[in-house]
């Protein structure tokens, strides 16, 4: 390098603070001569070009240069020695740099050999901006060359940034339009603006709260990520001032180290984005920001419309609570994920009955209060949705809930408009991994679980696991099979259990007991009778029993030719249906049965079943049928009810007989029941007698009749006839 007088003309003093703080232009110097590096650094010391200082990046070989550009991707100019480790090392390096994609970088070749020049095609193909000998590059010429090269680099970079910016805008528009909630959209806006102007993403986005009208932070990124949902004034005065300026301007605004952008979508939607910047933003970038802001406005408007549709699709219009669609969406995500946690179904109340009793405002407030209690319990970790009238569905992926906590919050009294309500909620928790993968089937399983629990344990809060689900599946299987058996009459049989006089042991009657066999399995009446009651099949079962009794009565009778009295159980489900008693009378007459030989057994729950059931029992009594009150003492009835009902017989439940002894007989509840029945003129029969001691104890209490295993288990009708010596009627088979 020639140290002529021109060198001294550029012996600059210290650079000002503004230029020192600006980002430097990076100059790559590639030369195998250390003196060249030292001279170049000395010549460029303190030089400022276009308001920015220079920074030299030194490499002593082509391979080292490749490594350096890997560390510095923003090199403006490369000054490369042609001859280094090889005669064409410099040219090979230029080719490598261009092949690596450094097309914006300006390249100046230097050589220490006058007269050596690359071919013209090489200069053109590799975009070489100049070729100089080292001796001819005085400081003035060096700085002039760098100024020209940097100007070219800056212009090319501006065009590249514009092209990249436009590509980014197109790409970001697609990404923004895919974002379906405000928080994601706002975060996307910050990321795209930061990429557009080339700064680190540190900023926030505020949106106007539709209810309060105040601007509130909806998303923060970088060091602003912890702001949560703070109101804009709480962020700081600097941000308030930036917002005020942005609101008054159609263009991006700047204050201190912030860029502010205000977007109004024209539909009462307002968005304010603020981003930290570490440098001034040039005109090309401002133009890109203006263009991008129009995309933000369109995306924001689309998002507003999507949120409006979401409110219609995912929220209940009357209670303004998440609805079934919201529940199904959350359930689908949970089933597609780790399948950890629970699906919870909560039945709060009989909504329609509550509306009829107290009005829809009260019923709605009960549901809203229940939702508030559940929300407080879930602490934002669950999705709670109104999935049916009076019922919520909850997706609990973090096992936030328990049966105890649900019972604690739901079973408290609801005080609504001065009215105390206790609706008796029921809930089931189904482990996620017990559910089918299909969303609709999973909901069906959860619904079935709630129905099952409400039918057997209303008001309970239970975990419904595999065992409970198997029980429900068995119930459904039995229900289908029972329906088929009722239609065909197959699988049923009638057993008779003797009733005896306790003193003599003489059999004087029998109770008809229905049995059902399915695929050689004897199904317990305790299992299939409740199914029949819930599905309306008990009338058909009663008809079967009456037909069997009629057929048998035509074949067998007592020794004196009189028909044997038979007791037939009636279901409360039938007695609560108006007209059942008349149907029963017609059925008995059609079968030719003697009304005086039939006794109908009803449970003491009839005392709590209102006037329909009681009136039908009264009708049967008036038509000549004996009425027996079964399982007395286990439920709700009292002697007051006993006196009011047309009862012929009281059957003392086996629970009062089980522990009865000769010593305890006189002071037992059993003796009290028998004494009161005698005063009311009602006959008493003790059930469940299994030992001789129990028989003797009952005789001491004054009970004269009973039934139980001591006298005979339920047996087939033919065997019963043979054992107790019934005679075949003349003309019988």
How would you summarize what this structure contains?
45% of the residues lie in helices and 21% in strands. The protein is built from 26 helices and 30 strands.
What key phrases describe this protein's structure?
8-stranded mixed beta barrel; single chain; alpha/beta; 4 domains; 45% helix; elongated; Rossmann fold; DUF3369; CheY-like_superfamily; Alpha-Beta Plaits; Beta-Lactamase; 733 residues
Strand content is 15-25%
How many beta strands in the DSSP annotation? 30
The count of helical stretches stands at 26
Total count of domains? 4
Overall SS class: alpha/beta
Q: Round the Cα radius of gyration to an integer and report it.
A: 47 Å
Please tell me the overall pLDDT. Answer: 84
Low-confidence stretches: 1-15
Order of strands across the main sheet: 19-20-23-24-25-26-27-28
Could you tell me the CATH topology label of the largest domain: TIM Barrel
CATH superfamily of the largest domain: EAL domain
CATH architecture assignment name of the largest domain: Alpha-Beta Barrel
Walkthrough of the structure:
- Helix 7 (139-178) runs antiparallel to helix 8.
- The protein is elongated.
- It has four domains: 6-160, Response regulator (Rossmann fold), CATH 3.40.50.2300; 179-313, GAF domain (Beta-Lactamase); 324-464, Reverse transcriptase/Diguanylate cyclase domain (Alpha-Beta Plaits), CATH 3.30.70; 484-728, TIM Barrel (Alpha-Beta Barrel).
- The chain is α/β, with parallel strands linked by helices and 733 residues long.
- The longest helix is centred in the first third of the chain and has 40 residues, at 139-178.
């Amino acid at each position: 390098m020639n140290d002529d007088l021109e060198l001294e003309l550029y012996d600059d003093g210290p650079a000002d603070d503004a230029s020192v703080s600006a980002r430097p232009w990076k100059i790559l110097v590639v030369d195998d001569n250390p003196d060249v590096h030292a001279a170049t650094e000395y010549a460029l010391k303190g030089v400022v070009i276009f308001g920015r200082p220079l920074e030299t990046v030194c490499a002593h070989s082509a391979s080292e240069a490749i490594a350096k550009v890997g560390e510095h991707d923003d090199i403006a100019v490369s000054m490369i020695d042609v001859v280094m480790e090889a005669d064409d090392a410099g040219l090979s390096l230029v080719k490598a740099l261009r092949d690596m994609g450094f097309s914006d970088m300006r390249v100046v070749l230097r050589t220490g050999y006058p007269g050596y020049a690359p071919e013209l095609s090489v200069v053109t193909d590799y975009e070489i901006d100049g070729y100089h000998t080292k001796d001819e590059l005085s400081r003035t010429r060096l700085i002039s060359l760098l100024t020209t090269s940097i100007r070219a680099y800056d212009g090319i970079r501006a065009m590249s940034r514009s092209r990249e910016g436009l590509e980014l805008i197109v790409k970001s528009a697609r990404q923004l339009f895919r974002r379906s909630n405000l928080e994601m959209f706002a975060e996307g806006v910050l990321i795209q603006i930061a990429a557009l102007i080339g700064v680190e993403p540190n900023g926030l986005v505020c949106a106007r709260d539709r209810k309060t009208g105040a601007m509130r932070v909806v998303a923060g990124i970088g060091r602003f990520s912890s702001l949560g949902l703070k109101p804009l004034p709480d962020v700081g005065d600097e941000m308030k001032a930036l917002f005020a300026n942005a609101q008054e301007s159609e263009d991006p605004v700047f204050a201190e180290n912030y860029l502010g952008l205000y977007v109004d979508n024209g539909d009462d939607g307002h968005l304010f984005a603020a981003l930290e910047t570490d440098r001034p933003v040039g005109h090309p970038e401002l133009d890109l920001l203006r263009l991008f802001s129009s995309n933000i406005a369109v995306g924001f408007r689309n998002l507003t419309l999507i949120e409006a549709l979401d409110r219609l699709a995912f929220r209940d219009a009357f209670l303004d609570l998440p609805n079934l669609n919201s529940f199904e969406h959350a359930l689908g995500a949970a089933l597609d994920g780790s399948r950890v946690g629970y699906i919870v179904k909560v039945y709060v109340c009989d909504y329609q009955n509550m509306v009829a009793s107290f009005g829809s405002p009260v019923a709605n407030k009960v549901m809203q209060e229940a939702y508030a209690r559940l929300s407080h319990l879930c602490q934002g970790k669950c999705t709670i949705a109104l999935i049916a009238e009076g019922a919520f569905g909850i997706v609990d992926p973090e096992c936030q809930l328990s049966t105890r906590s649900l019972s604690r919050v739901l079973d408290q009294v609801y005080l609504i408009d001065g009215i105390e309500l206790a609706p008796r909620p029921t809930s089931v928790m189904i482990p996620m991994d017990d559910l089918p993968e299909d969303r609709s089937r999973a909901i069906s399983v959860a619904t079935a679980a709630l129905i099952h629990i409400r039918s057997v344990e209303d008001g309970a809060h239970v975990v419904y696991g595999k065992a409970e689900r198997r029980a429900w599946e068995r119930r459904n299987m039995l229900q289908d099979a029972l329906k088929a058996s009722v239609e065909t009459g197959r699988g049923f049989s009638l057993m008779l259990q003797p009733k005896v006089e306790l003193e003599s042991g003489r059999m004087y009657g029998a109770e008809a007991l229905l049995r059902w066999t399915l695929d050689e399995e004897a199904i317990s009446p305790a299992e299939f009778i409740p199914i029949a009651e819930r599905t309306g099949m008990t009338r058909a079962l009663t008809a079967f029993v009456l037909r069997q009794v009629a057929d048998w009565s035509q074949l067998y009778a007592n020794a004196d030719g009189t028909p044997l009295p038979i007791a037939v159980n009636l279901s409360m489900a039938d007695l609560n249906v108006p007209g059942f008693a008349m149907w029963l009378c017609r059925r008995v007459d059609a079968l030719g049965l003697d009304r005086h030989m039939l006794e109908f057994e009803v449970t003491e729950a009839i005392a709590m079943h209102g006037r329909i059931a009681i009136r039908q029992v009264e009708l049967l009594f008036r038509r000549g049928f004996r009425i027996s009150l079964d399982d007395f003492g286990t439920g709700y009835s009292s002697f007051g009810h006993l006196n009011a009902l047309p009862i012929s017989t009281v059957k003392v439940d086996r629970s009062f007989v089980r522990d009865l002894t000769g010593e305890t007989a006189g002071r037992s509840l059993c003796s009290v029941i028998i004494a009161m029945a005698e005063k009311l003129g009602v006959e008493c029969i003790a059930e469940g007698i299994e030992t001789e001691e129990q028989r003797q104890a009952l005789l001491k209490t004054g009970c004269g009749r009973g039934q139980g295993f001591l006298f005979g288990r339920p047996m087939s009708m033919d065997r019963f006839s043979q054992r107790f010596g019934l005679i075949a009627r003349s003309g019988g088979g």
